[in-house]
Amino acid sequence: MTAATTNMSTDHSRATADGAHTHGRGGTPEASRGDRATSFDLAAFKVPTGREEDWRFSPVDRLQRLFAGGLTGTGPSITVEKDDAVRVERVGRDDPRLGTVGAPGDRISAVAWESFGEATVITVPRNHVGAQHTMVAINGDELSAAAPAAQHLLVVAEELSESLVVLDHRGTAEVAQTVEIDVRDGAHLTLVSVQDWADGAVHVGNHRIRVGRDAHLKHIVVTLGGDIVRLTPDVAFAAPGGDVELLGLYFTDAGQHQEHRLFVDHAVPSCKSRATYKGALQGQDAHSVWVGDVLIRHEAEGTDTYELNRNLVLTEGARADSVPNLEIETGEIEGAGHASATGRFDDEQLFYLRSRGIPEADARRLVVRGFFAELINQIGVPLVQERLMAAIEVELDRTMESASR
Q1: Closest CA to 266 of 326, 207, 180, 208
Q2: pTM, whole model, 2 decimals?
Q3: Weakest mean pLDDT among 32-41, 104-113, 341-350
Q4: What are the E-state strand segments in 199-256?
Q5: Coil, helix or strand for 186?
Q6: Which DSSP state fits 401?
């Protein structure tokens, strides 16, 4: 087991006692996740030093331009392909719909709110069943990489609608991004965010999510490129019957920092959440961070939640930090638990396959494909699944090239 990885063992936790608090690795009983400040006022958040819980894994020295505020750069361009019923608007920051899903919870999210001038609003109408997916192409270039910028999107799935929205990030940029996601009563929304940035891109994004009565959200994150990518999906249930699936896949290369911090706030009864993230790492100073915070408040009886993170370290010099946190304030729940593990490439599996005549390069590919296969099949979006498999093949080619040197 390589010394460059952390949190090597699996951590399971279930809680049934009334008023119990249970935390995964890194959790502290005296610090409730629900006590974190939220505010639209930038002054409410100090510039991080890296000692704060929210920033202790992040390369804060490389984020100083985003911390500073006043982002005036030209952000990545946004192009939307959709069916005729879906509405797309460009609105000013004074539009009353903006900021209604939730408030920023950290310094860069507040900077993003303070700095954007216009927002893109995508609305799936009530009762509409999408005939095609809505593709939101977010493309950066040399101009968008020259100075840090803020970007704001609002996705509204109105009552009883069914839709698929894909946010596809490419090119290069330095951007603080907010995505508000409003899934209203009875709506079914699948939202996919693909981070396939070019080398050197910096993307810090906050997805603020509200889920209505009997609504369902499948939220999928795929992170492949960029220098620094830090995404923080924050989920709040607004009424009973909400159901959220949070799926994530990442492939971290040498020098990349990929960080995913989830917060699921169960504040109403009878809601369900599932989080499954898997990542592979390769190369010197490849660093992935996954933090899963779930809070079940006292009034959230009947909650059913589980979160899982798995990391596969393919080469020496890579590091994965995995921190599941579960806080429970009521014992009247259906179930709650979490699991996390990080380990190196399984030499026994490799030996087994090679002993049956499979060349080493093909055997390595089979092991990595198998690691991701179950999660990819859960995505249920052929467009995304095909692209993911192609991207994984590219990453595996890099692994094979490195191993042959």
Answers
A1: 326
A2: 0.90
A3: 341-350
A4: 202-211, 216-223, 228-237, 243-252
A5: coil
A6: H
Please give the average per-residue pLDDT across 368-391, as a whole number.
Answer: 86
| Domain count across the chain | 2
322 and 382 in one domain? no
Same domain as 30, residue 115:
yes
Distance CA 137, CA 273 (A): 28
Of 344, 360, 389, the residue at which a domain comes to its end is: 344
Q: Are residues 335 and 272 in the same domain?
A: yes
The length of the chain in residues reads 405
Contact present, 115 and 72 (Cβ < 8 Å): yes
Structure tokens at 308: 């899982």
| Owning domain of residue 138 | 14-344
Which residues, 6 or more positions from 340, have their beta carbon under 8 angstroms from its beta carbon?
7, 10, 11, 24, 25, 290, 292, 308, 309, 310, 322, 323, 324
Classify residue 43: in a domain, yes or no: yes
Q: Among residues 320, 344, 368, which one ends one of the domains?
A: 344
- Cβ contacts of residue 184 below 8 Å, gap of 6+? 156, 157, 158, 159, 161, 212, 215
Give, rounded to a whole angstrom, the gap between the first and last alpha carbons of the chain.
22
Report the DSSP beta bridge partners of residue 172.
none
Q: Which residues contact 348 (CB under 8 A, 6 or more apart)?
A: none
The answer for residues whose C-beta is within 8 angstroms of residue 90's C-beta and 6 or more apart is 118, 119, 120, 121
Identify whether residues 340 and 351 lie together within a single domain.
no
CA dist 16 to 266, 297, 301, 338, Å?
16, 14, 12, 14
Lowest mean per-residue pLDDT among 319-328, 345-354, 384-393: 345-354
Q: Which amino acid is at 397?
A: D
Q: CA angle, corner 383, sides to 381 and 387, nearest 5? A: 115
**List of residues 6+ apart from 232 with CB closer than 8 A:** 105, 106, 109, 205, 206, 207, 260, 261, 262, 263
Tokens of 306: 């589980």
